[in-house]
Amino acid sequence: MGIFSRRQTAIAEPPAAGGHDWPAERPAPAVATLDPALRALTGHWTIDRPHSRIGFSVRHAMVTTVRGAFTDYDSRLYFDGARPGESRAEIVIRVAGVDTGVEQRDAHLVGKDFFDVRRYPEMTFRSTSTTHEGAESFRMTGDLTIRDTTRPVELQLDYLGSVVDPFGYERAGFDGTTTIDRRDWGLVYNQRLEAGGSMVSEKVRLQFDISAIRTT
User: Fold this and answer.
1) I need a labelling partner for 81 at 20 to 30 A (CA). Which of 17, 96, 116, 127 fits?
2) pLDDT score, position 152
């Protein structure tokens, strides 16, 4: 993703070894003026799950916020330090790994009322474009698929920094956010409150707190 340049400090466990099958960067005209040091960061990356969080938050009963995370997923990221528009990402989430801290609620989420994981075990995000919006802000557009329904979403990405950790791994961090209407993906179950409003809001905020590690 087009999100790496500033320096910070981080300590992490080394990632599991793994390959990739994405092609090398394709020639394209530059779309923004960026720090030349970004060129050195061009390459393939993956999300370091123990030090990252793909989460969500949703209003419950109109008075509080429930938060959860998806703990089981695979990722492939490609960053082009000279041409951010060539950067891309793919995340495949196994929805059975959803965790809100309440076992009964998690069981409801993976059931037929919501994710229906027996029929739709995975949700995916695959980027379609990346734009440098200036300074350390980027916007990534992509296709989000839930329950075999695919719709476009836009992620606001803020770059946090890059560093070589004590284990010798090069890593970079960013925060990403977007808000979706779950009904657009067929997640329409709800209970109405006597005073008006919904037990679970239709708007869901997705949050990506990512530490990415270079693979090549």
Assistant:
1) 17
2) 98
